[in-house]
Amino acid sequence: MEKTVNLSITKGPIDDVVKLSTDPNILKLYANGFQCTFTLTDGVLVLKHNGAIIAMVTMSLAAIKTLHKNIEATVQGYEKQIGINIPTFEDLLPEQFKQQPNK
Description:
33% of the residues lie in helices and 22% in strands. By secondary structure, the chain is of the alpha+beta class. Strands 1-2-3 form a 3-stranded antiparallel β-sheet. The longest helix has 22 residues, at 61-82.
């Protein structure tokens, strides 16, 4: 049996996520890229798979900022528990393609 690491910072148990993963009424997507932008009142998260847009999620500014913080905390907890450092896309780029700090 595959080991499941419960690093969820939500209030529900990990079993709820497992049940949702098998629910045919829940849309499931796999994304390996994204874009994020803002309007005056909302945040927009565009999900991509191999460069193609597969979904767009519009959220309130408070919701998207909370999502950012929750994802960051969950990733940090995962890295600490598993003992690895997950690279960002920018970390994986050759040096000549990395963004230079604004001067």
